[in-house]
């Protein structure tokens, strides 16, 4: 296990994706709005998801220089998408958004954790 990402580029890709996801969550297009409504998240709380994603992306970037921060951010992203998957399952909202977006980003986050920090 390492406290600085090696290789660094999977973490950079994840940071870009999570930041972009945060931008789309802040002003969600119809597909993301439908997903958030589908899992029953109140519209008053949507902004919180965007803030969490922006902070996660910042943590991933800070982790290039500060040991342990990128690892913690990556673990946090894995936990975030596990919670999102649980929300989808609990709400029985398991269409394309669940399989492609939620589980896809969960899988990507786990791969980044393993490749950049655990191997």
Structure description:
The structure is a single chain. This protein has 119 residues and is mainly alpha-helical. It is built from 5 helices and no strands. The protein has helices spanning 9-26, 30-38, 46-62, 69-91, 96-118. It is a multi-pass membrane protein. Keywords: Membrane, Transmembrane, Transmembrane helix. Its main location: membrane. It comes from Brevibacterium casei S18.
Content-based structural category:
mainly alpha
The overall pLDDT average reads 95
Any idea what the shape is?
A: globular
Q: Helical amount among residues, as a percent range?
A: over 70%
**What is the beta-strand fraction?**
under 5%
Query: How many H/I helical runs?
Result: 5
The total beta strand count reads: 0
Main β-sheet description: none
Can you write the helix and strand succession as a string?
HHHHH
Euclidean distance between termini CA atoms: 6 Å
Instruction: Please give the domain count.
Output: 1
Assembly annotation: single chain
**Rg over alpha carbons:** 14 Å
Report low-confidence residues grouped into runs of 5 or more: none
Summarize the structure in short.
With 119 residues, the protein is an all-alpha fold.
Topology:
Blueprint lengths: L8 H18 L3 H9 L7 H17 L6 H23 L4 H23 L1
